[in-house]
Specification:
Shape: globular
Strand order of the largest sheet: 2-8-7-6-5-3-4
Helix content: 25-40%
Radius of gyration: 23 Å
Number of strands: 12
Largest sheet: 7 strands, mixed
Distance between the termini: 32 Å
Strand content: 5-15%
Bound molecules: pyridoxal-5'-phosphate
Length: 401
């Protein structure tokens, strides 16, 4: 079959990394794609579509409200803006000029990463705390929750917390300290699914806002994500994202998303306007989220496991390489294949092997996260049936069998 990519003359990639943005994310279920096609054939009032999305997201996350964004990074930008301005439309109009506002955001040094461009782009000053000597190997400690309290001033707008399974200090402790000073906590949980329980976990632990990616494990459109959290902060985020090119007499936002009676007037287009999200993405995300929650987690795991078993089988015995299936359902919820090279004997290093896979036809993307230890990792979440065998055959070729 000739695909749209053939017509464009762009090669497709066998993606054994996972839903990485650089590799266009994952492969959407047809049910999601079909919902997007249907959505594209009608016009709706975007505020009302978002109000319904809010209800649905709240149901899944246990939060007061929710909002669909163009990704988890966009959700961080909108969440930060909401914490800085609250419901003040004049402040919304002024961003990213934050002079005279609460404009400091506290982050642990060990949580810093380049997605926090989204936080900084609101015009805030990032206040870094702690030194995680456990990462340098020189020690065992990281920032402690009392240090958050010590960094809070009258200028503090929010605490941003990046959630990984190993993140310290515990979110509950950070929330307790921040809330004692009346400061909201915004959690970046972009890729923290599965396990499904994480949809509710951060809200339960006290987060005021949580950002998730729609294009990762949920399987929604690549340019989707969502925020969930407190009703007021979500209302502020919505006000700084929705298109507000409308006469005041005609502006009639859904009251459960934006309580107009609390505003002196409507703000103009906000700082979130460049992160526009389409009706197709909103409907796609909501459909994918429903399918993700409804899917039997054991069956999903089984499907991934079979792809990884197919890869291990199709490699057979490779010389100077140890191939293991890591099927640790508790830890990450995603089985992987780990290929460890004896680099002295194999005549090829792990990074060279990944480069050769990438340069082949078809191109195969493998995860380089452990190449320093001579390890290449293959993941199942973006693979289609049959692709593991293509990878196995290519590995045999490259490792000279
Ligand atoms: C992937 C990721 C993001 C960005 O998510 P998008 O949905 O691509 O915007 C932000 N933070 C972390 C920690 C991530 O892993």
């Amino acid at each position: 079959m000739t695909t749209v990519y053939d017509r464009l003359g762009v090669s497709t990639v066998i993606n054994a990394v996972g839903p990485s943005t650089r590799l266009s994310g994952g492969v959407m279920r047809l049910e999601v794609a079909e919902a997007m096609v249907q959505a594209s054939q009608y016009c709706v009032d975007m505020a009302f579509l978002q109000a319904r999305a809010s209800e649905i997201i709240s149901k899944y996350t246990g939060s007061e409200a929710g909002y669909v964004t163009s990704g988890a990074a966009a959700a961080l930008l909108l969440g930060t803006a909401a914490c800085v301005t609250g419901m003040d439309p004049l402040k919304m109009n002024r961003l990213p000029d934050t002079s005279g506002m609460k404009n400091e955001v506290i982050m642990a040094r060990s949580h810093r990463n380049f997605y926090d461009h989204a936080v900084r782009s609101v015009g805030i000053k990032l206040v870094e705390i702690g030194i995680a000597d456990r990462f340098s190997g020189a020690g065992v400690r990281d920032v402690e929750s009392w240090e958050y309290g010590a960094a809070i001033t009258e200028r503090t707008a929010a605490v941003v917390y990046v959630a990984y399974p190993h993140t310290l200090p515990r979110l509950e402790d950070v929330c307790t300290v921040a809330h004692a000073h009346g400061i909201p906590v915004l959690v970046d949980a972009a890729g923290q699914l599965p396990p499904n329980s994480n949809l509710q976990r951060f809200i339960t632990e006290g987060a005021d806002l949580v950002s998730f990616s729609g294009g990762k494990a949920i399987g929604g459109p690549q340019s989707s994500g969502f925020l969930c959290g407190s009703r007021d902060l979500i209302a502020s985020a919505a006000l700084q994202h929705l298109d507000l090119d409308i006469l005041p007499e005609l502006w009639n936002p859904p009251a459960d998303l934006i309580d107009r009676s609390r505003l002196p007037g409507a703000p103009q287009h906000g700082i979130g306007r460049p992160c526009k999200v389409g009706k197709e993405e909103i409907v796609g995300l909501l459909t994918a989220l429903r399918l993700f929650v409804e899917e039997d987690v054991i069956k999903r795991y089984q499907r991934w496991l079979e792809l990884m078993l197919e890869l291990k089988r199709s490699c057979g015995e490779l010389p100077h390489a140890q191939i293991d299936l890591i099927s640790d359902r508790k830890r990450s919820g995603i089985p992987i294949v780990r290929l460890e090279l004896d680099e002295d004997q194999s005549g090829i290093t792990a990074i060279e092997l990944i480069k050769s896979l990438q340069d082949g036809n078809p191109a195969i993307a493998a995860n380089p996260i452990s190449v320093d230890e001579g390890i290449v990792i293959f993941g199942p979440t973006c693979l289609k049936n049959g692709e593991p065998t293509i990878i196995g055959n290519r590995l045999k070729e490259l490792l000279n069998i």
